[in-house]
Amino acid sequence: LVSVGNICRSPIAEAVFRKLVTDEKLEHKWRTDSAAVSDWNVGRFPDSRALGCLRHHGIETAHKARQITKEDFQTFDHILCMDESNLRDLNRKSNQVKDCKAKIELLGTYDPQKQLIIEDPYYGNEKDFETVYEQCLRCCKAFLEKYH
Predict the structure, then answer these.
(1) Structure letter (DSSP) for residue 37
(2) 84 Cβ partners below 8 Å, 6+ apart?
(3) Fewer CB within 10 Å: N-end or C-end of the chain?
């Protein structure tokens, strides 16, 4: 699960998906992680508003931001991102990787409400983080149903 900085949207999506997988007792079938296309926030914890939103929904995460690697394209089956800019960056990076096996898509592709883009809540407020959480939950549930 990929976003620009890996401190707002993608860690929320990662934590949501991990909880869904755990609740369904499918941990042994899924390796879940998130990353950034940029190196701006490498090593940082998620935004405090993202952490607060997750805690409000009973979800904890110990994620630290990292940048996507060539190995990610070679080992993950799916790389899901948040917006068109992420998609362009990931497709460009994947073209430089030999043996890329990852299917790169927008996470919003799986939204039953057809909200294709998951907007960056960084410059917004708690309500914007809640919107991201709700979108990620819908999309992750639909993705898991399709591939489980």
Answers:
(1) S
(2) 106, 117
(3) C
User: DSSP E strands: which ranges in the chain?
Assistant: 2-3, 35-36, 78-81, 103-106
Q: Which residues contact 42 (CB under 8 A, 6 or more apart)?
A: 36, 65, 66, 67
CA distance 78 to 83: 15
Domain spans in the chain, listed from the N-terminal domain onward? 1-145
Please give the positions annotated as active site: 9, 120
Domain 1-145 has CATH 3.40.50.2300: yes
- State pLDDT tens for residues 11-60: 999 999 999 999 999 999 999 999 999 999 999 999 999 999 999 999 99
Give the DSSP H/E element, type plus range, for residue 18: helix 9-23
